[in-house]
Design brief:
Helix content: 40-55%
CATH topology of the largest domain: Rossmann fold
Radius of gyration: 19 Å
Strand order of the largest sheet: 1-2-4-3-5-6-7-8
Number of strands: 8
CATH class of the largest domain: Alpha Beta
CATH architecture of the largest domain: 3-Layer(aba) Sandwich
Number of domains: 2
């Protein structure tokens, strides 16, 4: 059963797994539900719980439709929202887990609330590099206009993706990725809304690295060796920036990592999921 929390104009829906007080707040990937983190439930310790939220524009979480195009979520607004949410949950400190796009939200939260965070677990995280197409499509007026035309008629983007794939500039996996996320109008609108809402939510990696070096916390990044969407090399570069190679874990998987294989890996490495109570 889902609960929800509203602060000012923003509402998030969330589901809880476990009944402990040691709390991890979990953010899923683009197009994915908060229930994706249920795979962790069997390996939770008695004192652990997961609070798994729906990203804005996903599930039952709401961002005002009138703001999506011209007044997106800002870092300042996000920290105010999170402070209110933590008060609602009666939390002073907490853990963070993020997958894919949710990893970007986690990195920004880490940047803004570092002194309240016990540990961070990133799984194939977005946000370590800004895709030029994303910057153009969400950050410029002409890009937003072009994407609006794609929503109406995706034929051109499919033709471009096919050509890029044919000449070797787009892998087969990324070619399929384009079709999976743009093949219906509903999906294209979700891409637009999520891109617009979160277009100012990108982490300051230098600041995070500085905070980490001054006061290291438990921090782990898991990447899929065969992930062509978010490649492990991004994690390698960020681990080097942190000055801590032990933060990086590369598993023989693709981008879809939330399942039994990852559950087993975390079960074998329990300090990654909740270092404080091991």
């Amino acid at each position: 059963m889902k609960s929800d929390f509203t602060y000012n104009e923003l509402k998030i829906a969330y589901v809880q797994y476990g009944t402990g007080t040691e709390t991890s707040i979990c953010f899923p990937g683009f197009g994915r539900p908060s229930e994706d983190f249920k795979f962790l439930q069997p390996i939770l310790k008695p004192n652990q719980r997961l609070i798994c939220v729906d990203l804005f524009a996903h599930g039952e979480s709401i961002f005002p439709a009138t703001r999506i195009m011209n007044d997106p979520l800002s870092k300042e607004e996000w920290i105010h929202f999170m402070n209110a949410f933590l008060l609602h949950l009666k939390l002073n400190t907490f853990h963070l887990i993020g997958y894919s796009m949710g990893g970007r939200v986690v990195l920004v939260t880490m940047e803004l609330m570092y002194d309240r965070i016990i540990s961070v677990l990133l799984i194939a995280p977005d946000g370590l590099k800004i895709n030029p197409f994303y910057r153009f499509a969400s950050g410029t007026a002409i890009g937003r206009k072009m994407y609006h035309s794609i929503i109406q008629n995706p034929t051109r983007i499919f033709a471009l993706a096919k050509w890029l794939n044919k000449v070797g500039l787009l892998t087969d996996k990324l070619h399929r990725f384009v079709h999976v996320h743009l093949d219906t109008r509903e999906k294209r609108e979700l891409v637009r809304d999520a891109w617009m809402i979160y277009r100012k939510i990108f982490p300051d990696k230098k600041r995070i690295a500085s905070l980490y070096k001054s006061n290291p916390i438990s921090f782990h990044m898991i990447f899929g060796k065969f992930d062509s969407v978010i490649v492990p090399q991004l994690g390698q570069k960020f681990a080097a920036q942190l000055g801590d190679k032990k933060t990086l874990h590369v598993l023989p998987m693709g981008h879809r990592m939330l399942g039994v294989e990852l559950q087993n890996y975390l079960n074998d490495n329990p300090s990654m999921l909740s270092p404080q109570i091991i």
